[in-house]
Kazal-like domain-containing protein
Amino acid sequence: IKLAGIDSAYNQSSSDGILQMCNEECGCSNIYNPVCDEALGVTYFSACYAGCQDEGKTENASSAEKK
């Protein structure tokens, strides 16, 4: 399993860690609740961390939650 920001680049970012510019203002909790992006083969720490604003997603929901 590739975890975004840990084992895998986070949306083409060169910095490490799950807190990135696209989600730093979201107020994501530190509770691990993984969300998979099957198309990219990447797992995010939670839907909040996957909900990057530059990807056209809301701050607290990933496209996986909207289905």
Notes: The CA atoms of residues 23 and 52 lie 6 Å apart. Helices lie at 47-50, 63-66. The longest helix spans residues 47-50.
